[in-house]
Amino acid sequence: MEVNEVLVQQLADLARLEFNDQEKVEIRGELQRMITFVEKLNELDTTHVKPLLHLTDDYNVFREDRVIPSVTREEALQNAPAATEAYFKVPKIIKK
C-alpha cells in the first residue's frame, strides 16, 4: 500500500487536524514505515499459532465481600457544618 498526499489529507480531516506541508511530508514517511512493517508481519507463517486472547495467564482475583466496622452515621455527621439527624445539608446549586 502506498501512502500519498490524498490519504494523509483524508486522515487529517477525519482526525480534525491541520498540518503544514513539511508536517505532511514527515507524516507520510512515518505512515509508510508503519504500513511496511505491518506488511512484513503478514509474511510470517502463523498457521499453527493459537490466537492470543490475554497477555498473561493471570486472572482476576476477587476478595471475599465482608462487612467490616466503619464510621457510624452519627460520627460522620458530627463534623458536618450543616446536617439533619440522618443527612448532610448542602447548599442548593440548581436554580429554576
TrEMBL record:
A GO MF term: ATP binding
Keyword match Chloroplast: no
Pfam family for this entry, one: GatC
InterPro entries reported for this sequence: Asp/Glu-ADT_sf_sub_c, GatC
GO BP: any one term: glutaminyl-tRNAGln biosynthesis via transamidation
Enzyme's top EC category: ligase
Job description of the protein: Allows the formation of correctly charged Asn-tRNA(Asn) or Gln-tRNA(Gln) through the transamidation of misacylated Asp-tRNA(Asn) or Glu-tRNA(Gln) in organisms which lack either or both of asparaginyl-tRNA or glutaminyl-tRNA synthetases. The reaction takes place in the presence of glutamine and ATP through an activated phospho-Asp-tRNA(Asn) or phospho-Glu-tRNA(Gln).
Family of this protein: Belongs to the GatC family.
Keywords: ATP-binding, Ligase, Nucleotide-binding, Protein biosynthesis, Transferase
Entry EC no(s): 6.3.5.-
Assembly and interaction partners: Heterotrimer of A, B and C subunits.
Name listed for the protein in its UniProt record: Aspartyl/glutamyl-tRNA(Asn/Gln) amidotransferase subunit C
NCBIfam families to which the protein is assigned, alphabetical: gatC
Catalysed reactions, as listed in the record: L-aspartyl-tRNA(Asn) + L-glutamine + ATP + H2O = L-asparaginyl-tRNA(Asn) + L-glutamate + ADP + phosphate + 2 H(+); L-glutamyl-tRNA(Gln) + L-glutamine + ATP + H2O = L-glutaminyl-tRNA(Gln) + L-glutamate + ADP + phosphate + H(+)
